[in-house]
Structure formats: structure tokens, C-alpha cells
Design brief:
The protein is mainly alpha-helical. It has helices at about 1-10, 15-40, 45, 55-70, 75, 80-85, 100-125, 130-150, 150-180, 185-240, 260-290. Keywords: Membrane, Transmembrane, Transmembrane helix.
Length: about 300
Amino acid sequence: MSQSSGSGHLPNTPLAKDEMDLSLGTSISRCAVEESTESRQETPTEKSIPAPDIGIMPWIQVAGAFCLMFTSWGTVVSYGTFQQYYTSGGGIVDEASSSTIAWIGSLQAFLLMFGAALTGTLYDAGYFRTMMYCGSFLMVFGLVMTSLANRYWQFILAQSLCTGSGMGLVALGALATPGTWFIKRRGLAIGLGSTGASIGGIIFPIALRHLIPKIGFGWAVRVMGFIVLFMLILPLSISRQRLPANKRRILIDFKSLGQLEFGLYCLSIFLAFLGFFTFYTFIESWAIATQLNTDGVAPY
């Protein structure tokens, strides 16, 4: 009787205890798997990063890059018109040689290039939109101050330091952003965004050439500032970084220069730009000095 009653209490048998342990272990494992799955689904790399090459958003970033290149590089390559106006006796009341005046555009271009090298770390850290806001303000404010300047040092502060610093803040992100939104057509996207520099370099000199005789240098530069402000509205509204922020990056990583291919690429770009800005700075003045402007084609 006691034996039959003892056999009726299954939880006290070793086999029942093993089944309970197995059931408990299975429940714990299932909970662990569910928690691991939930945590994995909430990581930014799998949930919040938009897919590249899909939808209209990548092409919107290309439009934003076009506007940023139009306002930054387009202004830099238009400096030849300013150089010709300054050397002909307009704008600057101080006596300065052509080479001295050229420092205005040279310093502006330097800040564009050097600033882009330094802002790469800020871009990777997720501060692209902050840099766009600051850079846009500096570009527009610098052009407005340029329209009010009449001394050499004032042009250095306004057109060189202020405007150039603003360009340096937005130039790198202009092409880096669409490059992350595309994989299959990355070259096409970056190429289309880069055309903004060429279009700006065409429009600004022509506009200044026709506006300065009619409304004066000050208002002509202000109109240029209004154009820049208008073109910046689109990227300030729609430009977004696709990849998550990486705040653990050194300012400048010189290890990459140890790669032969990359080192040769940087050297070739350095040599190319040695003569690049000289051409854009003096081509219009040279055309007028050599009497190639008989039909008014020098600004073009």
C-alpha cells in the first residue's frame, strides 16, 4: 500500500526531477533567445539605417549636394571676376598689387580645401547638419560683409576668412553624403552633385559682370549672397546622413598615407591643384590685358 502510494508521487522520482529541470532549462533558453532577438532587432545597424539605392531619398541627397557645390566651389572658381574688378581700381581703396590682391582668393580657396580635411572627423561623428548651418551662415554673412568692404584687410576678413571658412564646413559633406546613399550608381551620384560647382562657376561671373555696371559692386555682391542663401535652403531642409555616427575617430589618420595607391592619388591631386586656382584667378584679367575682350567674352 505504501509502495503504491509512493509511486503515485511522481515529482519525488529522479525521472520527474530530470523532466522538470529540462523543462525549466528550455524555458530559460527560450527567454534568452527571445531577449537576444529583441536586442538584435533594436540595433541601429539592422533597424534604423535606410537601404541604399532605394526610393527617392538618395536622389534628394544628390540635389542637396548640387546646391552645396554650387554655393561653395561655384563661388571659389568665380573669384577671377573679383580679381579683375579689384585690380582695375574698383572695390579696394588701398593701393595693392595684383599678387597682393590675389591673396584674397588664395586664402579663401585654402580654407575651403584645408577646412574640408579637418571637418571629416566631425562629419563621421554625426555633425553634418550642424556644420551645414554654421557654414551657410558664414558664407552668406561673409558675402554681405564683402559688399560693405572697401579696405584690403576688410576683404581679407570677409571674403577670405569668413566666406572661406563657411565653404570648408560644407564642402566635404556635399559629396560624402550622396556617396553613402548609393552603391550601384555611386559614381553617377557624385558626378551629378559635382556639376553644381561648374554651374555656379558659370552663373556667378556672368551675373556679376552684368550687375556691377547697373547696380554697383555692393548690391551685385548682395544679389550673389541672396542666390547663395536661396540655394542653401534645399540642403538645409533635406540633406541627411545615412550611416550612424562614429565618434571614436582621430582628427587626421596618417596611416592611410602609407598605402601606395592612396599616397600617389593624394600627390597627384596636390600637383593638379598647384595650377588649378592660378588659372581661375588670373584668366579674366589676362584676357583683358591681352585684348582678347574685344567682344566682351572675357567673363565667359
